[in-house]
Structures are given as structure tokens and as C-alpha cells.
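Give me C-alpha cells for this 450-residue protein.
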Amino acid sequence: MAVARSYFGTDGIRGKANEKITPELALKVGQSAGLIFQRGEGRHRVVIGKDTRLSGYMIENALVAGFTSVGMDTLLLGPMPTPAVAMLTRSMRADVGVMISASHNAYEDNGIKLFGPDGHKLSDEIEAEIESLIESDLTRRLSQPQDLGRARRIEDVRARYIEFAKRTLPRNMSFEGLRIVLDCANGAAYRVAPEALWELGAEVIAIGVDPDGFNINRECGSTSPQALRQKVRELRADVGIALDGDADRVIMIDENGQIIDGDQLMAVVAESWRAQNLLTRPGIVATVMSNIGLERYLASLNLTLERTAVGDRYVLERMREGGFNVGGEQSGHVILSDYSTTGDGLVTAMQVLAEVQRKNQRVSEVCRRFEPAPQVLQNVRAARAQLEKDTVARIIAAAHERLGATGRLVIRPSGTEPVIRVMGEGDNRELVEEIVAEVCHALKDAAIAA
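Here you go.
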């Protein structure tokens, strides 16, 4: 049975800066995680990266105070993508890694993501341990003055991550001849991503690379690709790439301005890696939100699609359990576990661009692997408890029956917002829209009556 938690959600601790994510909380997280991850003798270290939100300074300093107060040396990376922090946690032999980010949320929010020494996000059990320590009095467990940790900034991390990303490609791979519009969402990858693609020979037109603390994800990035679509068409570019605020997700835009989502990207990588005998298992892992069209397409290649709950941590858990090396989410979190322990937007885009170069075809030809089934997603502001109401349960049961074997209905409370997400898909769009509307209406009525 899942244990109710006060702080951690599906992707670390997240909330409004100075309301939920306060300096006091960050201090306690640093102390608690620092105590848990002090294993073995000698000095212990933590690496801390962040995105470009104004509140990152406040949270970073509070975390430094927390970690150093329990004797951990702190290495500050500055603005870096989430996957870079995970990679550097391993390569710098840190005991724990921290990313300060609220991913695709607006600047008012922020968050704290933690990685173990292996670069993987923490298990529910370790998060529960940290929560327990946060709620306790740690005064007697603080370090003596002579045992306090030190803090310093690391200067060469951008170059290290760029080299890492480039090494995921064959040595002779070049992106020469590609005109790329790259949207970095005014976020964590605003320097590393343009440099990496330029070093691979592409002509790079970068937008969303002027962070001011407030404009992260604002009308830009993977959750708002309109400006990128317009720029691709205006400049007659070959492709557009949109990262989110912490660069662990990506969507792409073809030369016609059409969006290529995470499902299509996974299909491209799966087919490419299958042809190169790089798949460790004949299939991939995705969530319940991935389109049924992806499942059908993979089946045509004799590949399976295993589904998990929403959240890249659950995708990665299933990948590790089953020995899969490709997985991800429709939103653009794509995990290629040969290289990364989390989604990596830049590395995913580079794998797709490599396939474009190998085939010497347009992006639209390479990346439109299947026709998605009509899919409708609506959010309803309602509590999880409304799902247990008899009237709601009856309507949901009837909806499943009406969709039958040719469609799917997925209803789930959000892990990051106080809403319930209702997703329906099937070959008959009108039926899907009608069913989703009925379920949403039932949830709204139940919320009003509560």
C-alpha cells in the first residue's frame, strides 16, 4: 500500500517558492539527505545543479547550509540540465546529487530532485526516510565545527556534459547540412545545448537562451512550442528542437511545423536501435498515456510496449526490472539507459538527428512513424476522493464498456497539481470526446456536491 507523503511527489519536492519550497525546507532536506547518504569513511560530497529560476539562488544557498552543516562537501554546478546533474553525480563520485528545478512549471514554482550515488532518482523508501528526518529535530546530529563541509563552484562542467552528449553518437556522425532552430526554454540548457549541436556541425539558431529569472518556460520550450514552429517555417529550417526548463524532456518540430511528440521519438529510436541490434529487449517501456498508435506500430515491428504509471521514475524502474534500454513518456521524457539514468532531451534529439542523417531524408519522413489514434485529454479540478463516489464509478465503468477493446480510458489524479486527468482514445474521435466529456461532467458534479 502506498504511504501518504508530505513532501515528495512523483518527481521530487515541488511547489511555489517561499510558500512550500522555503529556505527552511531546503535546509532540512540538505541535512536529512546528507545524513542518509554519508556512507563509508572519508569525506562525503554532494553535487548541486539548478535551472534559471530566480528562487534558485535562495534554495541553493539553503541546501549548501544544510549539507555542509552535517559535514558534506558541496560542489556547485550552476545552471545545468537535470540529466547532466545525474551524470555528474556518478562521474564525480558524489554520495548524492541535487537538481533545483520545477521542470516545465512557471518561474514561481521550484523543486528539489535528489539522485543517489548511482545517478538514479531515489526509491520511495529512501524518500520516506528523508521525510521522517525532515520532521525530526536534527540538532544533536549536526557536525562539530572541525567536521563541517566545504563548498565550491566547479567551472568545467559544461564542457564535460557536452563531451558526454557527443560521445553517445558514432565517432564519424556529423550534423553538417542541418539547419536547426533550438528552443532552450530560457532554462538550464541555454548554454550547453546550442554549443553541443554547433560542435557537431549543425547551423544552430537558438531561441529561449536569454534567461532573466522570470521567463523560464514562458511562451517557449516543449510545453509552448508555437514560437518554435513559427521560427522553423520562417527560416525554412530542417528541424526544430524544444527542451523544457530543466532539459530532461524534448519535443521536435518537422520542416512543415508539425509537432513530433515523445511517442514518435521513441518509435524512431526503437526502430533505429532494432536495426542496429542495440535494443537489449525486443520492446520499450512507456506510460498509460502513450498513444495506442505507438503500441500498434511497435507490434508491426515485433516489438512490445510495456506500460507503467505516469512518471519517468516508474518507467525507469520497469526498464531496470525488465532489462529494457528505451523508454519514456508522450510528453518527451525519453530515457535511453545506455547513456542516462533520467530523461535527456538533448541526447534524445541527437539520436533522432543521427537517424535523419543516416537515412538522408526529411525530418517529416523519418519521424512520422505512425498515425496516432484520436486522443482527448481534459483536466478537472477535483479531489482524488471524487473517484470513489458511486455515481462517478458507474459512469466510468459504462465509459470503459462503450470504448471496448479498440479504445482506452485513463483517469488519474495528477502528481503535481490538484486536478484529475481524464484521457480517452480510440478510432472514433466523436465517441472519445463524448465519453471524456461525460466523465469530466460527473467529476465536476461530485466536486460541487462535496
